[in-house]
Write a structure and sequence with these properties.
Length: about 300
């Protein structure tokens, strides 16, 4: 495998978890709910996916269980943020703290154990295309699903009646309510779907990317996903581009390690995606002033107040 194929393939692999989490955040924020609990849902999904795969040896069940846990945690956030009108930023951060602490406590006995490992699934014929084939079509099936999720998210938000309702809830929940849209139900549905994607992203980390369980397995990728959503203007396709960009930066360190090239110090490459996250958030805050963010983002809504 030449360097080009290796780097492209590794970029796709390293960007997948961030991509799924970012698509989940796009859904919830387009409906008007900020969810800063991505990191907590990600690690709980990783733990659940690893444990379920370790016990059942069934990858589908492992991903489904991880997604279900992510959805339940997102609904917990929704209970406080949507039903009770609590501060969404504080509720999301509390969810991250809960997920990190709970996963560290429950996962102690699983550290070092050999669990299920989900391998690659080359696409016949396409995988044999020189250069492009091994890089793009010899991936894990979850990578292909990540692209399909992006396509489905874009299609749902822009081409369906439900997508119109979601955008209305994010932009002007009072107007959406007047149109007959159940704002709370729509927001909770988007939160649950986004939580499912984030939980599944966690399972990808513990079953595919670095098979096994360890504390802090997500490495801050949940926060990166939140930054990507802002960077992408709350749109699915730019979120895919952002995830690939961060995946490329992360892949560089593995590439340089594998090829023994030391053009850039490794510690710089390791912190680069995180530095860019901070820069992106700062830039968006400085230049955005609301920008393309949904007008009703972060604002609780109760019908009796309309």
């Amino acid at each position: 495998m030449n360097d080009f194929v290796f780097l492209v393939a590794l970029t796709l692999k390293t960007s997948l978890a961030v991509l799924l989490a970012a698509q989940g955040e796009v859904l919830s924020e387009r409906a008007g709910v900020i969810n800063l609990g991505q990191e907590g849902m990600l690690v709980m999904g990783a733990l659940t996916g690893f444990w379920t795969g370790f016990v059942t040896r069934d990858p589908v069940l492992a991903f489904a269980a991880a997604g279900a846990v992510g959805a339940c945690l997102a609904l917990l956030h929704g209970f406080f943020a949507v039903r009770l009108g609590a501060n969404q930023l504080l509720s999301g951060i509390a969810l991250t703290i809960l997920g990190l602490g709970l996963s560290n406590y429950l996962g102690r006995g699983l550290i070092g154990k050999v669990g299920l490992r989900v391998g690659e699934m080359p696409i016949p014929v396409l995988a044999d295309i020189p250069w492009i084939g091994p890089a793009l079509f010899k991936q894990n099936p979850v990578v292909y699903l990540g692209v399909l999720v992006t396509l489905a998210s874009w299609w749902m938000l822009t081409r369906t009646r439900f997508g119109l309702a979601v955008r209305a809830c994010g932009e002007n929940p009072a107007a959406a309510d007047a149109m007959g849209v159940h704002v709370a139900r729509t927001r909770l549905t988007c939160l649950a779907a986004g939580g499912f994607l984030t939980g599944a992203a966690g399972a990808y980390l513990s079953l595919v990317f670095t098979p096994g369980w360890k504390e802090g397995i997500s490495g801050g990728q949940g926060w990166i996903a939140v930054a990507i959503v802002i960077f992408a203007g709350w749109r699915p396709w730019p979120a895919l581009a952002g995830a690939l960009f961060f995946g490329f930066l992360s892949a560089l360190q593995f590439f340089f390690q594998a090829t023994s090239v030391h053009l850039v110090p490794l510690y710089v490459l390791r912190i680069l995606p995180y530095v860019l996250t901070i820069l992106t958030l700062s830039l968006a805050t400085a230049l955005g002033r609301g920008g393309r963010a949904p007008a009703g983002l972060g604002k609780p809504y109760f019908p009796e107040e309309s």
